[in-house]
């Protein structure tokens, strides 16, 4: 029999006294309370993050993004995890890293030329310890199982951080809406839902949008779910306002990122007003991050898409942002068209904006869009803060450079949690069959972002006072899920 106790000597004595009894009470000199220990407990059994990652690499060798996400999180929670030996006894770490369920299916649809097309579809139901599975759907040609597993893993921690009862999930397809007609997008969404509807439900799994899935796609998906099930339910979030959507949901991720940024700046008594901002992406998150920056008096200088970025030395003002919103959301055009409208701006084909000089960087496009060299350029150019609107936009070496330089740096799971938070609020409104005002939702959003920030400060402040937002977010997100899993037994 082995016991967990700080005193090896005492542990041996207890062994002698109680033999092989299953549960025993011990009176340890260095423990304040009487504790119950299971006799099978191994005193040396603790989690070794590097080993867990190695094991996962062997089991899932073709999923580099998933391994990257896990290997970024585990070292930051290792210390806290090992303060709770009961976690290891229940093998919590493997159960938390490996998704509960992976649904993979073929989608068959017909294009405008009458040709039959196939795509792959996925739904990763990662963890539902604290609420129904919840996470977006991504339509992009790069989508594969490993990318969605990384996103579902991250989503579990993020949703836990929001303080709302939501588990973690993600899904999507390697279908690209780019260049497709409305009718093709509709037929694809319907075909996707023909499979997805079997595994989702308002208390089971509630998908939302992500890259390539905006209001239009969510509308088509919802319509097909209704057709198949005869149910009008809050089964998707990001819906249109007339059929159960929440005000502020389109704005929530971008706004939330900037609210989080202002909390970070406040820890150093810095005002966002007048600060120059580099933004990547020109989609949902980027647009509303830019809008909130403008409202707070900051000056966005760049925006981008997967072909390149525009730099406007005069700043992207309200009228220019309206032009981008129309270009991207209605005309579905490319960001380079901006310089035809505003010739003082410059377009950089095939490049990212991180070499430009500014005060703040908001990566809002996609994963792995800031490498080490670009992070160093940002630091050399005197950047103060990096707040991630996208999921995992910074490569591990970039994060190290930011943290070594003691920048204000927040990982996406903390700073972009506003989107899923308002999705959670949309679920609440659907359950009540009520709609809240924009002001009410925005106030909730501000409060949630502030609470997330405080949790990061609580768990992430280091001895020298530097706030390690990565550690703070991971530990805070992890502890809630871990406690719920422990309470629910081995399931
Ligand atoms: P959108 O599809 O609305 O916009 C994505 C933007 O990023 C587009 O400008 C797109 O350009 C660009 N982009 C996509 N892939 C690449 C790439 N490989 N390289 C360079 N640029 C690229 O998506 P969202 O704004 O919704 O999402 C952006 C990020 O934010 C993602 O990481 C997403 O997971 C994350 N996020 C989104 C939330 C939401 O509520 N929407 C919530 C939380 C996180 P192009 O048009 O050329 O493809």
SSE layout and pairing:
Blueprint: H1 8-18, E1 23-26, E2 35-38, H2 49-59, H3 64-81, H4 85-89, H5 92-97, E3 101-110, E4 116-127, E5 133-139, H6 145-161, E6 168-173, H7 182-196, E7 205-208, H8 215-229, H9 249-266, E8 276-280, H10 284-295, E9 299-305, E10 308-311, H11 318-330, H12 338-341, E11 346-349, E12 360-363, H13 372-380, E13 385-387, H14 396-404, E14 408-410, H15 412-415, H16 418-432, H17 438-460, H18 469-487
Helix pairs in contact: 2-3, 3-6, 3-18, 6-18, 7-8, 9-10, 9-16, 9-17, 10-11, 13-14, 16-17, 17-18
This protein binds NADPH dihydro-nicotinamide-adenine-dinucleotide phosphate.
Residues 209-212, 214, 253, 281-286, 305-307, 364-366, 389-391, 416, 419 line the site of NADPH dihydro-nicotinamide-adenine-dinucleotide phosphate.
Q: Indicate the percent of residues in helices.
A: 40-55%
Mean pLDDT: 92
Number of strands: 14
Low-confidence stretches: 1-43
Largest sheet: 7 strands, mixed
Portion of residues in beta strands equals 15-25%
> Any idea what the CATH superfamily of the domain at 252-419 is called?
NAD(P)-binding Rossmann-like Domain
Ligands, ions, cofactors: NADPH dihydro-nicotinamide-adenine-dinucleotide phosphate
Ends apart, CA distance between termini: 26 Å
CATH architecture assignment name of the domain at 252-419: 3-Layer(aba) Sandwich
> How do the strands line up in the largest sheet?
11-10-9-8-12-13-14
Work out the radius of gyration.
24 Å
CATH class category label of the domain at 252-419: Alpha Beta
Helix run count: 18
Shape verdict: globular
**Given the helix and strand composition, which structural class is it?**
alpha/beta
Output the CATH topology of the domain at 252-419.
Answer: Rossmann fold
């Amino acid at each position: 029999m082995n016991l967990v106790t700080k005193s090896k000597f005492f542990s041996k004595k207890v062994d002698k006294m109680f033999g092989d009894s299953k549960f025993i009470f011990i009176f340890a000199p260095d423990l304040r309370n009487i504790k119950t220990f299971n006799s099978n407990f191994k005193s040396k059994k603790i989690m070794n993050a590097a080993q867990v990652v190695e094991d996962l690499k062997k089991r899932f060798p073709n999923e580099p993004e998933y391994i990257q996400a896990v290997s970024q999180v585990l070292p930051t929670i290792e210390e806290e995890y090992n303060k709770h030996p009961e976690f290891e006894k229940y093998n919590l770490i493997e159960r938390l890293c490996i998704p509960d369920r992976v649904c993979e299916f073929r989608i068959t649809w017909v294009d405008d030329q009458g040709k039959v097309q196939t795509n792959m579809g996925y739904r990763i139901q990662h963890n539902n310890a604290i609420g129904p599975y919840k996470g977006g759907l991504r339509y992009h040609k790069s989508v594969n199982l490993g990318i969605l597993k990384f996103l579902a893993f991250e989503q579990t921690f993020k949703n836990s951080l929001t303080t709302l009862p939501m588990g973690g999930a993600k899904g999507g397809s390697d279908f690209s809406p780019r260049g497709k007609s409305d009718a093709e997008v509709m037929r694809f969404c319907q075909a996707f839902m023909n499979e997805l509807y079997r595994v989702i439900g308002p208390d089971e799994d509630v998908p939302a949008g992500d890259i390539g899935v905006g209001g239009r796609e969510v509308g088509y998906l919802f319509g097909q779910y209704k057709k198949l099930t005869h149910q009008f339910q809050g089964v998707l979030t990001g819906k249109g306002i007339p059929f159960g959507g929440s005000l502020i949901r389109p704005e929530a991720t971008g706004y939330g990122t900037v609210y989080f940024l202002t909390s970070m700046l406040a820890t150093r008594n810095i005002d966002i007003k007048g600060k120059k901002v580099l933004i990547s992406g020109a989609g949902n998150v980027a647009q509303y991050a830019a809008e909130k920056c403008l409202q707070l008096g900051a000056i966005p200088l760049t925006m981008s898409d997967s072909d390149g970025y525009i730099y406007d030395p005069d700043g992207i003002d309200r009228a220019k942002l309206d032009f981008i919103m129309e270009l991207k959301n209605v005309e579905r055009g490319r960001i380079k068209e901006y310089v035809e409208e505003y010739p003082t701006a410059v377009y950089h084909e095939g490049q990212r904006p991180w070499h430009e000089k500014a005060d703040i960087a908001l990566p809002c496009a996609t994963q792995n869009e800031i490498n080490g060299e670009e992070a160093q350029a940002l630091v050399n150019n005197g950047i103060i803060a990096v707040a991630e609107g996208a999921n995992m936009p910074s490569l591990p070496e970039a994060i190290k450079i930011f943290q070594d330089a003691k920048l204000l740096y927040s990982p996406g799971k903390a700073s972009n949690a506003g989107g899923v938070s308002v999705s959670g609020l949309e679920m609440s409104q659907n359950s009540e069959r009520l709609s809240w005002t924009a002001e009410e939702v925005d106030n909730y959003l501000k409060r949630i972002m502030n609470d997330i920030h405080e949790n990061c400060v609580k768990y992430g402040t280091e001895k020298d006072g530097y706030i390690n937002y990565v550690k703070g977010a991971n530990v805070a997100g992890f502890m809630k899920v871990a406690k719920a899993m422990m309470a629910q037994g081995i399931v």
